[in-house]
Amino acid sequence: MDPLVIVFGLGVGILIGLTGIGGGSLMTPLLVLFAGVPPVVAIGTDLAYGAVTKTVGGWRHWRKGTVDLGVSVWLAVGSVPGALVGVWLLHRLHTSYGKSFEPALLVSIAVALIIVAVTILGRALFMPKLVARERHSVERTTRAKVLAVVIGAVLGLILGVTSVGSGALIGLALILVFQLTPHRVVGTDVFHAAILLWAAGVAHIASGNVNFLLMGMILIGSLPGVWLGTHLIGRVPATFLRPALGCVLLASALGVLNKAGIGMPAVVLVGVPLAVGLGAYFVQRSRPAVAPPDAKAVPA
């Protein structure tokens, strides 16, 4: 039993419950950087534990009425086959190149993390007008269904290879493309991720990429964590949480790049996320808060 892994699970579980983000984006780099887990095993174990954790979170959000079931289902139509192709691609590359492939895999994880961090920070700091157009549900038009399937397929492929994206990238699509309100974004994101992660997790189990002992230790922390996070949703201000999460993901990306052999001085590893965090703080202080139009109608 490794208490550090259990603590990681608890922290990441709380973030998943609160924001829908944090599973693959945080747990994979934590396992690689601090627990010394090989990248391929970290990805497979992360996705397998995430399936269980997000099932609990998805059920809680469905009970609270914060899930757009139609969008979740159509996203899954694309994301499930996309994730299976991604797992197959990862397995083929690892079989062909062995450990020599790990630096390239670490770089791909870092790039995915940077994309997620930048998009979260950009949405939180520079797109406040989107809040005025947020809605509680999405009309199930043919266009909306096709968009959901295509977005799901692309992001499912990314998740299958890197374990990153089930929360952050899908959540971004729910905000930018489908313009859901924050509570519905989190609920729909977590509910869909449960479907997606079961497909990807089972595929990684079949490929032999899952450490079940490690998975059990993570679940000891993450299950109560996600329960607590869903209970706290609505009580923690998103204006603080989103930029903070973006900075944490940026720090994780830099750490993974350093692990991949791309030298990162300590001043960069620590200084860049801190500088971005300070910048985000001053940007938010200079801008009046904008409440979503139906905030009172959504259960907290």
What does this structure look like?
This protein has 300 residues and is mainly α. The chain has one domain. It has helices spanning 3-19, 23-34, 39-64, 69-97, 102-126, 142-162, 168-176, 182-206, 212-232, 238-259, 266-285. It starts with a helix and ends in a 15-residue tail after the last helix. Residues 292-300 have low confidence and may be disordered.
Features:
about 300 residues
Outline the secondary-structure elements.
Layout: H1 3-19, H2 23-34, H3 39-64, H4 69-97, H5 102-126, H6 142-162, H7 168-176, H8 182-206, H9 212-232, H10 238-259, H11 266-285
Helix pairs in contact: 1-2, 1-9, 2-3, 2-10, 3-8, 3-9, 4-6, 4-8, 5-10, 7-8, 10-11
Radius of gyration: 18 Å
Query: What value does the average pLDDT take?
Result: 81
**Low-confidence parts:** 292-300
Q: Characterize the overall form.
A: globular
How many helix segments?
Answer: 11
Structural class: mainly alpha
Q: Could you tell me the strand content as a percent range? A: under 5%
The number of distinct β-strands equals 0
Instruction: Please indicate the count of domains.
Output: 1
Cα-to-Cα separation, first versus last residue: 36 Å
Helix/strand order: HHHHHHHHHHH
Question: Based on the structure, what is the oligomeric state of the protein chains?
Answer: single chain
In which range does the helix fraction lie?
Answer: over 70%
The largest β sheet comes out as:
none
